[in-house]
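Hi all, long-time lurker, first post. I run a small reading group and we've been trying to get comfortable going from sequence to structure in the token notation. Rather than ask abstract questions, I figured I'd post a concrete chain and ask someone more experienced to write out its structure so we can walk through it together at our next meeting. Sequence below, copied exactly:
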Amino acid sequence: MKWVERAIFCMAMLGMAPAAITAEWESVTQNAVGDRFLIDKSSIQRKADTVFYWEYREFPQPNNAFLEEPVDQPVYGVVLNWSANCTSKTQRLRQVTAYDKARKVIKRFSYGENGALFQPKSGSSASTVLNNVCDR
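-- Answer (accepted) --
Happy to help. Here is the structure in token form:
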């Protein structure tokens, strides 16, 4: 786990979002194919019914299908910025940074208020992450 924290810290120092520089990454779950889901505890902020947070997903195998737009390199990790409504259990994707196997930035996508709206399937890894954040 320590190497993941160091890698994410290095990513932050190489130009990621300022919130990640003081990140406190905590492992939340791992799915059947080995994808790991972590949240930055220090990024969780509540504003009325909305909670904002950063998530890191690490893929043991390339997962380019995760991105809405094609990239020309295999994606082994993404850092995601979400806003979520804990009552309706929906979340909006605000920003994505995709990384290669060496943890170098492939591409950044910024969506802001226009990001896709998701409602994770109950029992899924994404739902587990959302519930973890909402229960704090």
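A couple of things your group might point at:
The two ends are 22 Å apart (CA to CA).
The chain has two helices and eight strands.
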